[in-house]
Write a structure and sequence with these properties.
The complex is a heterotrimer of chains A (158), B (295) and C (779). Chain A is of the alpha+beta class and 158 residues long. Chain A is built from five helices and five strands. The longest helix of chain A has 14 residues. By secondary structure, chain B is of the alpha+beta class. In chain B, a hairpin with a 3-residue loop joins strand 4 and strand 5. The chains are: A alpha+beta (158), B alpha+beta (295), C alpha+beta (779).
């Protein structure tokens, strides 16, 4: 299999990559760039643990080929906070104990960050629609909904 | 056999022109498959631990991302338009709301950023959510080949579960819809095992509009999925509705007739008898809702 | 609810692991990087639920470039088990469930491992398979384990060689038969539950490295790093100090990562490729097919009361479908046996609780350990009996529920609890006395109640150890061997240590990952036992450190220890009002007068806890002085609607109240209650499904659906009461599992209240509910 050379802008930095055709964005992030915050939960687009932002829109990184993304912008959980400054959404997840085992959390945060970017004042139903592809077995979800609402009340996701 | 981790090996090619697509399709035959969103294809390739040697990405070809609406000519949607781009488009929300509603029920938000209308149509899954909506708007497909374009109705295009009338040298370029009838009201109602995000156990699209020529004063188009080898309309039921003064009983009778036409199979997702009854109940409920709007 | 003097016990401090988890810094096993030395592996699985393995040909697989080893059951005959050592690491002579590992392939890439696994050729001779535990318990059933009599077994488990019965626990108390004959009302029924999966978001993953020195390191997603080390070490004949288990944060466990699942496979494969780490990572599909399940259960229940509604007698038979190997499951049948009545005072009981081999996946621990299974039937039959004698289900439960000091079914006296207080609070929260209107004309609304009990189900003497280590600046590291699965145990032990030592909560750090080389011993993170047992050990360790500090300072000041305490990081004297900041002495000690020598030194507190008072039970009657350490009890009530057009349920409210003994961190208790309510609700709709050939047909999130964010109840009400126990830290006991034990029967009771239909078999589905409504209407 031939390798493809491409560049991705990941969390604001341009990264050069050499990947085979069957390398998904998930594997490119984890195995080529060492960004382990994005989780592999099903590789079928059903659980949302691998959600990242592609040009600002959430995608299941397990179902996107890296080779398709030359020049595109990716944001992962590692790109949310900087210099110890959490986003209001991260802060709300922490304040409301919307986290238990933490495995779904990066995907939840990325999907909800995108939601708040396109809809700064989501209703509970808006949040359910936006996060129905992010499974969580621990929390029972209510605190995740509450955290998104709390963050929305404080302004933006960023 | 269980699905494998990761994707099997293949070579990715980004198509530069329709001519290149035709050449590569001819050269590689079944070793090559066209890649749209990949949301179903990749899952299948993991499940089967195999797939084509070449994936030809056609999303970037001319017109594949087209969304153009003209009040007279109707709507043209490029095959690679993502489902989220359908559901959030103002023209579609205004003139083809059932398409938007259906698009919003597919999988989850992340998936819909990748999943395409063309992929949904070409998979020809009996449970595809876009199908009933596309049927009630009388969608047709434009297939491109070295011989030029041809147009097929969706009923002609879907030939069975997972089967289409696509020839070896053809690809789906555009899905086309005539202008909707003036004053039409419509709705896609879906029943899954979860409140959102599931495949359709039964999905029903109804489009109603005024027609003073018929006794009912209204016409309805009804599209149904998941309960036959392909998604389907129910012409005898639609005809029955036009010929009667509408009452709750007539609508219920129509829903029962639709139930009788449905032919679901028993599987782990739902029993056949449940699916049949849900065809009746969903058709009845959706008809009533549209009738309320129009009467 | 009261807060301790230091102010940390009873306070809802934030999670210690929160920041790691919201920033993507939290490390799970799959996130550890090993570099190019890492090898990948893939298991070859049996395509049949029951078959003899005639031959395994690995030549083609071994010949594939990049393959480093192929391991089969022929290479390693060892068996594993916690209570009954019956499970091979790789099946050698026979496969007993669909998906059982028969070989493992190690290769330089995942792709090559996948290709090589497909080249391993196995000849099978298909055997008749059996799935129903009642049929499997019969004498003429096909035998899964002809060698059952030769297996090593714990002294409180009673397998029946020559049958498929791996455990038979009996209760013979009073005369149930005679009593039932004279009861004013009797209710009787058979109830069934299918096997279900734990479904953690993180699939099972492990990496093993076998060094040339004989040292083996295993990185695993594990609730039980010490039990895992013990089981694998014993099975493979490795000394415990040569097997090191490192267990980073666990991405969801629910019992599915207790004991050993697939980790021994990784160790055996690593032994075949000395010096190179081997990763074994389950796909989601493998997680559904190749890990342990909650056991299926068929329960036959007969219960009677007198004319006043007072329970008189019960006859019970529990057939647990233990699956192919019952190394862990035998103790579930036992636990269900000694708690067989549920939280009721019943003088006459005859019960038989059986664990039975079947050709389903390995049955094992899952959140509640036998209790969700038995309460499914018990809590519905109690409603039926109440109806028989025209009594309100809540009144019936209030009349009959177990109380502190009662002699319960196993003969022990009930430890302190207040179930009536739970009932009071929960019925108030759900407005039990109000019949409320449905929200739409096509819906019917109903309410249901269910109560529960559960004791930690474990050997009599599982231990916990802890170390509290001071740093120079008087911050501390709390070292434990219990695991953080999301339940918040690290937060609770940090609170406990900080409270005892009079330092700010933020100054206590829990040392993780858990590493059997450095972490103090912990039996397992199961049974809702950590707040209680590990909490006791941490409290003791902190008290030990505190004593060391006070002893040194008292000597330095020439005062009595009793006159000193530690507050806000200062040692203070009530008597002299002197103060000493901890950071001046916890490492360097304190000088004697005129610096003529020093006293004290680095403060390291140690503590341990082990229950010493659990007694054995008579094998014929199940009676003894103390079957368990204690019980946790609780009540749940559900308010729901049934959509008459679709059969779909809309859960409007789940109210839960549990007696937690003492709430160390109230908000973390609420997170368990909320998560448990949704887990419990979801479990009522879940089933691992099999076709006639015994193959799993729903190994994906598409067809094994768990509750999504759109499915949750409109409201989840949580609360607790506090009746302290004698042997827990500040009276606290666990609540992590209890929160989902009776949700399914509470839902079933609410459905009956709404539409008058009872469902005795799980799973529920809209399909099933609608067709039952349809049938009822046509009658």
């Amino acid at each position: 299999m031939a390798n493809h050379k491409l560049s991705l802008i990941v969390n604001g930095h341009t990264e050069q990559l050499l990947v085979s055709s069957n390398t998904t964005l998930l594997h490119a992030l984890r195995d080529h760039l060492g960004l382990m915050g994005t989780k592999n939960g099903c590789e079928a687009g059903e659980c949302g643990a691998c959600t990242v932002l592609l040009d600002g829109e959430p995608v299941n990184s397990c179902l996107v080929l890296a080779v398709e993304l030359d020049g595109r912008e990716i944001t992962t959980i590692e790109g949310l906070s900087s210099n110890g400054q959490l986003t209001p959404l991260q802060q709300a997840f922490a304040d409301l104990n919307a986290v238990q085992c933490g495995y779904c959390t990066p995907g939840m945060l990325m999907a909800s960050t995108a939601l708040l970017n396109r809809n700064p004042r989501p209703t509970e139903v808006d949040i359910q629609k936006a996060l129905v592809g992010n499974l969580c077995r621990c929390t029972g979800y209510q605190r995740i909904i509450d955290a998104v609402i709390k963050a929305s009340e404080q302004g933006s996701a960023q | 056999m269980l699905a494998r981790p990761g994707l099997p090996e293949f070579e990715y090619i980004k198509a530069q022109s329709p001519q290149e697509v035709f050449e590569l399709m001819k050269e590689n035959g079944s070793d090559l498959k066209l890649l749209m969103g990949g949301t179903d294809l990749f899952v299948q390739m993991r499940d089967r631990n195999g797939g084509p040697a070449f994936l030809l990405d056609v999303k970037g070809l001319p017109d594949m991302q087209e969304i153009s609406f003209d009040k007279k000519k109707g709507l043209r949607l490029g095959a690679a338009v993502s489902l989220n781009n359908i559901s959030k488009h103002p023209d579609l929300q205004k003139h083809y709301p059932v398409l938007c509603q259906a698009a919003d029920t597919v999988g989850n938000y992340q998936l819909r950023n990748r999943a395409t209308l063309g992929g949904n149509i070409c998979n020809a899954s009996p449970s595809a959510d876009m199908s009933p909506a596309a049927l009630v708007y009388k969608g047709s497909v434009i297939l491109e080949s070295p011989r030029g374009e041809r147009e097929l109705t969706l009923e002609q295009f879907w030939t069975g579960p997972g089967k289409t009338a696509l020839k070896e040298d053809e690809y789906l370029k555009t899905i086309q819809f005539p202008s909707p009838p003036a004053g039409a009201a419509g709705k896609y109602r879906k029943l899954g095992r979860s409140k959102m995000g599931d495949l359709a156990i039964v999905g029903v699209a109804v489009l109603g509009y005024s027609d003073s020529e018929v006794p009912a004063g209204l016409r309805f188009r009804i599209g149904i999925n998941s309960t036959a080898p392909t998604a389907y309309r129910v012409p005898p039921v639609e005809e029955f509705l036009t010929q009667n003064n509408l009452t709750d009983d007539i609508l219920y009778q129509a829903a029962e007739d639709a139930m009788d036409i449905s032919a679901p199979i028993e599987d782990q997702r739902a029993s056949a008898s449940y699916q049949k009854k849900m065809v009746r109940n969903l058709v009845n409920k959706t008809l009533k809702e549209i009738w309320e709007i129009l009467k | 609810m009261t807060i301790t003097e230091s102010g940390l016990i009873g306070k809802s401090v934030k999670r210690t692991d929160g920041l790691d988890k919201i920033t993507g810094c939290a490390v799970f096993v799959d996130d550890i990087q090993f570099g190019p030395n890492l090898l990948h592996s893939r298991l070859v699985r049996s395509p049949y639920p029951h078959a003899l393995i005639k031959n395994i040909d690995t030549k083609k697989a071994e010949a594939l470039p990049g393959v480093r080893a192929v391991v089969t059951g022929k290479d390693i005959e060892a068996r594993l088990g916690l209570y009954l050592i019956d499970r091979p690491i790789f099946a050698s002579d026979r496969a007993r469930y669909y998906g059982e590992p028969v070989a493992g392939v190690v290769a330089t890439s995942e792709q090559i491992a996948v290709e090589a696994a497909a080249l391993v050729e196995v000849d099978y001779e298909i055997l008749p398979a059996i799935y129903d535990p009642v049929e499997a318990a019969q004498e003429d059933a096909p035998l899964l384990h002809p060698d059952l009599g030769d297996y090593t077994v714990a002294n409180f488990i009673f397998p029946q060689p020559g049958t498929n019965i791996s455990e038979h626990f009996k209760i013979r108390k009073g005369d149930a038969e005679a009593s039932l004959a004279s009861c004013a009302a009797v209710a009787e029924g058979r109830f069934r539950l299918p096997p279900i999966e734990h479904v953690p978001l993180e699939t099972h993953t492990s990496i093993a490295l076998s060094e040339k020195t004989g040292q083996i390191t295993l990185w695993a997603s594990s609730q039980s790093p010490f039990a895992m080390r013990d089981m694998i070490a014993q099975s493979l004949g490795i000394s415990h100090n040569n097997l090191r288990v490192i267990a980073p944060l666990v991405g969801g466990g629910f019992g599915g990562k207790a004991g050993v699942t697939m980790e021994a496979c990784a160790v055996v494969m690593a032994q075949a490729v000395e010096g190179r780490p081997v990763k074994l990572r389950f796909t989601r599909e493998e997680e559904f097919v190749g890990t342990s399940v909650r056991q299926s259960l068929v329960s036959d229940i007969k219960v009677g009361c007198d004319a006043d509604g007072i329970l008189q007698a019960m006859e019970l038979t529990y057939y647990f479908g233990g699956g192919a190997y019952n190394d862990y499951g035998v103790n579930i049948a036992r636990a269900a046996g000694y708690s067989c009545t549920g939280p009721y005072d019943v003088p006459n009981v005859k019960a038989d609780s059986l664990c039975v081999y079947t050709n389903y996946p390995v049955g094992s621990a899952m959140r509640g350990f036998g209790m969700p299974e038995i309460h499914w039937g018990l809590e519905q039959i109690m409603d039926r009996l109440a109806e028989e004698i025209s009594m309100d289900p809540v009144e019936f439960r209030r009349l009959n529920c177990v109380r502190t000091g009662d002699e319960i079914v196993s003969g022990m006296n009930m430890t302190p609890i207040d179930l009536e207080a739970c009932l009071d609070k929960v019925t108030k929260a759900i407005r039990w006395d109000k019949k409320e209107a449905p929200t739409a004309p096509n819906k019917k609304r109903g309410k249901g109640i269910a109560i529960m009990w559960k004791a930690p189900a474990m050997p009599p003497n599982p231990g916990s150890a802890a170390v509290v280590r001071f740093n120079e600046d008087a911050t501390i590291n709390v070292e434990v061997g219990g695991q953080e699965l999301g339940q918040g145990t690290f937060t609770v032990v940090a609170q406990i240590a900080a409270d005892v030592l009079g330092i700010p909560y933020e100054n206590a750090t829990v040392s993780y990952p858990i590493d059997t080389k450095y972490s103090p011993y912990e039996w397992q993170t199961v049974a809702s036992r950590l707040t209680w047992s590990m909490g006791n050990a941490v409290k003791a360790a902190a008290e030990d450190a505190r004593f060391q500090i006070l002893e040194t300072v008292a000597a330095h000041w020439d005062e009595e220890i009793e006159d000193l305490t530690i507050k806000d990081g200062l040692v203070i004297s009530f008597k002299s009002e002197r103060e000493m900041p901890l950071d001046k002495m916890v490492i360097y000690g304190l000088p004697n007068e005129n610096y003529e020598g020093w006293k004290g030194g680095p403060v390291v507190g140690r503590g341990h806890f082990m229950p010493t008072y659990v007694t054995n039970l008579d094998p014929e009657t199940g009676q003894g002085t103390r079957a368990v350490v204690h019980y946790t009890v609780g009540a749940q009530a559900v308010d729901l609607e049934v959509d008459l057009e679709t059969g779909q349920l809309e859960v409007l409210n789940i109210a839960s109240v549990y007696d937690v003994g003492r709430a160390i961190n109230p908000d973390l208790i609420m997170t368990q209650i909320e998560g448990g309510a949704v887990h419990g609700m979801s479990s009522a709709f879940e089933a691992l499904k099999f076709n006639e050939a015994g193959e799993v047909i729903n190994p994906s999130f598409v067809d094994y659906r768990i509750a999504t964010i759109a499915d949750i109840p409109r409201k989840i009400h949580g609360d607790f009461v506090e009746t302290p126990i004698d042997d827990g830290p500040w009276g606290a006991r666990g609540v992590g599992e209890h929160v989902m034990v009776q949700t399914a029967p509470a839902i079933a009771n609410a459905i009956y209240d709404a539409v008058g239909i009872r469902f005795s078999d799980l799973p529920l589905s809209a399909d099933k509910i609608y067709l039952a409504l349809d049938e009822k209407e046509s009658q």
